[in-house]
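Suppose a colleague, Dr. K., hands you the sequence of a protein chain of 68 amino acids and asks what its three-dimensional shape might be. Before reaching for any lab equipment, you can write down a predicted structure in token form. Begin with the sequence itself:
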Amino acid sequence: MPLAAETYPVTYRDLAVEAAGYIYILSYITHLSQYQYRLDISPPEGEFLSRTTGVNADKLSLDFWRDV
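The predicted structure, expressed as tokens, is then:
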């Protein structure tokens, strides 16, 4: 699965795959001594679907209804 190009150093924290194959990647970047946490979602085919910022978490947990 190709990851999106990044302009700042990225630290990947966790990865989860739900029953239908959607992939959730929790990461953060460091910019100007600030941490920006984000959650990326990709469909089973692997291309980028969406990104949510401000998800300050260290680990992921998904349920059957795709609640994080």
